[in-house]
């Protein structure tokens, strides 16, 4: 039976429309804004509920080559639609999953000394793995090395003859949706300090709202999520993003 007939027979039925062209327009808007930095896409929670299998091919078509997921299962799903993309897994690293990282060419995000040690142990065991990202906690208190741990790790790397190659140095804003936030300014200062301790490593700071802050650098890579799907980066202002879902 055609969908229109189902809706006609049931006046209580609802239809959710996902506009992939709007999603692509949102990605291009952000990518153009931050160029020459690159724009990635956060596709956690099954692409914010829209479906990784729908969202990832559309974003690849729009030019996205970097994705962030929370879990390995999300990364494996994304790889099917993005065979050449860089896919970062945010929720830490364990050695028991190392073969999956290798098989699917996934990039780990290391956020603790345990993650780092597990990753280095896997390398010493003979596995070839994609260079990981290093996550620093500058105030979010969710994931990442503390500031003191980051300083300590930077000192440790200076003593190593072949320190672990890193593909990205990243942190996450606490309240970038608030203009002139003292917390945001403090985080930027912290990140600048840590950035200097890891020279020549590409850097990433801005989330959706951070992309639109006047005082935040795009660095090398931005990581929008909410705004890609039509969310307003600043709730007190007109929304620059296109609505992606309609009920």
Q: Brief overview, please?
A:
The chain has ten helices and eleven strands. The chain has helices at residues 3-9, 20-34, 44-48, 52-61, 72-81, 98-103, 113-124, 147-159, 182-197, 208-211, and strands spanning 17-18, 38-39, 41-42, 66-69, 86-89, 107-110, 133-135, 168-170, 203-204, 221-222, 245-246.
Structural class: alpha/beta
| Gyration radius, in Å | 20 Å
In spatial order, strands of the major sheet run 3-4-5-6-7-8-9
Would you tell me the overall average pLDDT? 95
Task: Compute the number of strand runs.
Answer: 11
Shape: globular
Termini separation: 21 Å
Unreliable parts: none
Beta content comes to 5-15%
Q: Report the total helices.
A: 10
Secondary-structure element series? HEHEEHHEHEHEHEHEHEHEE
What does the largest sheet look like? 7 strands, parallel
Give the proportion of residues in helices: 25-40%
Structure report:
Strands 3-4-5-6-7-8-9 form a seven-stranded parallel β-sheet. A two-stranded antiparallel ribbon has the order 1-11. A two-stranded parallel ribbon has the order 2-10. Helices cover about 40% and strands about 10% of the residues. It is an alpha/beta fold.
Main attributes of the structure:
247 residues; 11 strands; alpha/beta; globular
Task: Indicate the topology.
Blueprint: H1 3-9, E1 17-18, H2 20-34, E2 38-39, E3 41-42, H3 44-48, H4 52-61, E4 66-69, H5 72-81, E5 86-89, H6 98-103, E6 107-110, H7 113-124, E7 133-135, H8 147-159, E8 168-170, H9 182-197, E9 203-204, H10 208-211, E10 221-222, E11 245-246
Parallel strand pairs: 2-10, 3-4, 4-5, 5-6, 6-7, 7-8, 8-9
Antiparallel strand pairs: 1-11
Helix pairs in contact: 2-4, 4-5
């Amino acid at each position: 039976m055609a969908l229109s007939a189902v809706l006609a027979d049931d006046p209580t039925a609802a239809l959710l429309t996902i506009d992939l062209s709007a999603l692509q327009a949102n990605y291009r808007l952000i990518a153009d804004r931050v160029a020459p930095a690159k724009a990635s896409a956060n596709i956690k929670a099954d692409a914010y509920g829209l479906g990784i299998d729908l969202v990832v091919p559309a974003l690849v078509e729009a030019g996205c080559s970097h994705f962030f997921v929370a879990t390995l299962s999300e990364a494996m799903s994304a790889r099917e639609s993005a065979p050449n993309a860089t896919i970062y897994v945010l929720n830490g690293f364990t050695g028991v999953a190392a073969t999956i990282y290798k098989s699917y060419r996934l990039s780990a995000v290391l956020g603790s000394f345990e993650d780092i040690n597990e990753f280095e142990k896997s390398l010493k065991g003979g596995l070839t793995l994609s260079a990981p990202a290093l996550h620093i906690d500058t105030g979010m208190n969710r994931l990442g090395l503390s500031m003191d741990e980051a300083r300590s790790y930077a000192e440790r790397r200076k003593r190593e003859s072949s320190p672990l190659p890193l593909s990205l140095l990243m942190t996450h804003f606490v309240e970038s949706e608030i203009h002139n936030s003292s917390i945001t300014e403090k985080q930027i200062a912290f990140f600048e300090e840590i950035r200097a301790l890891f020279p020549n490593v590409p850097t990433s700071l801005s989330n959706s709202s951070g992309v639109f802050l006047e005082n935040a650098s795009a660095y090398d890579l931005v990581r929008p999520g909410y705004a890609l799907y039509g969310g307003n980066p600043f709730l007190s202002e007109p929304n620059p993003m296109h609505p992606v879902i309609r009920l």
